[in-house]
Amino acid sequence: MDKTKGLMEILRHKRVAAVIRFGGLFGLALAVFAMVLLVFGQNPFRAYADIFRATLGSSHGFSEVLVKMIPLVLTALAVAIPSRIWLINVGGEGQLFIGALFATWGAVNFTHLPAWLMLPWICFLGFLGGGLWASISGFMRAKGWASETISTLLMNYVAILLVSFFVFGPWKDPESANYPQSAPFPDAAILPSLLDSRIHLGALIAIAGLLLFYFVMTRTRWGLEMRAMGINQEAARRNGVSTNRYILLLMFIGGGMAGLAGMGEVSAIHGQLRPSLSPGLGYMGFLISWITMGSPLGIVAAAFLISIITAGGDILQMTHRIPAAAIHILMALVLFVVLARSTGKKGGK
Fold it and tell me: In this structure, is residue 47 part of a structural domain?
């Protein structure tokens, strides 16, 4: 018992030390960004106060942060799931676009469906579209034809061009005044909002995805086999684990999560398909998963922090006339904070 208590105290102290170290480095990032704000002729204290007042200081601002979190969590899961067996999925952006494309097809071609059928239908199509798109790279990886890192990255551009083809061509809304977008979704295809806010049903989908991911990895035989593959894929294969099956399955599920993010954006946020569907949500999800090492709680925390920054950036652009590039600088500084934290851990070992 004494040894167990001593171990718990050590772990507790390590966690406290990690929190203090991360807080100090994050404070350093804010201090450096404060100098950037001074260069733009802005008061950094007022700018930070405006950010937190607009995001966490009101129910509306907090709800907007949660809205921005939804696709980030889903695209982070799209990366975290295949990474359990060291697959690097850089294609969350393209899988998001293809999921939105499939969901749009279902929404605009089955307008007669009631909401209780339409919503599961477009969710299924969004998941299917993203999953099939990722499975192309998974199949090439299983066959040894191409690295999934390169193929998923390159297929992002193909997916975006596919969406542009449809919204500029056969799916273009004739009443859009030459603006490239599809016809508006019927009311039955709009994800319902929660709590009288813009938070939509996608939030529950993201939570369910996180919980299921955690449960499978920690409480099932499949999770055990995936952890074994992550440690030594060749040894797992020799013990009867079908590595190719897991490659295809995890790439499909991961791509499906990004496809659900695209479905949520096109259904709940835009209400129609547009080429400007995503401001890099897939790439940001990759970053979140990478810096958190695929931890479910880490994904939530990092997505929350980045959502505050992006939502606060919109406020700074409107109230302080700070260009969007300045917000990208802050995002880069936060990334350096994480890199410094990781380097510190390795150095400590």
Answer: no
**C-alpha closest to that of 93 among 175, 158, 18:** 158
Residue 49 lies in a domain: no
Task: Give the pLDDT of residue 349.
Answer: 47
Q: Which two tokens stand for residue 327?
A: 């917000």
Task: For residue 137, give Cα distances in angstroms to 91, 152, 155, 206.
Answer: 9, 6, 9, 24
Structural tokens at position 318: 């409107």
Q: Which of 324, 287, 281 is nearest to 302 (CA)?
A: 287
When divided into structural domains, the chain yields a total of 2
Same domain, 98 and 153: yes
* Phi/psi of residue 200, nearest 5 degrees: -115, 180
The answer on 66 and 12 residing in a single domain is no
Segment-wise mean pLDDT, segments of 10 residues, the chain, 349 residues: 51 54 68 79 81 82 92 96 93 97 95 94 97 97 94 96 93 82 93 88 95 93 86 77 90 97 95 90 90 86 86 74 73 69 50
pLDDT of residue 96: 97
Task: Burial-class residue 192 by CB neighbours within 10 Å (0-12, 13-18, 19+).
Answer: exposed
CA distance 288 to 295: 10
| Cα(161)–Cα(108) distance, integer angstroms | 20
Q: What single string gives the DSSP state of each residue in 221-233? A: HHHHHHHHHHH-H
**One domain, residues 113 and 33:** no
Tokens of 185: 């979704």
243 is in which domain, residue-wise? 59-321
3-state secondary structure of 181: coil
Do residue 183 and residue 291 come from a single domain?
Answer: yes
- pLDDT at residue number 28: 74
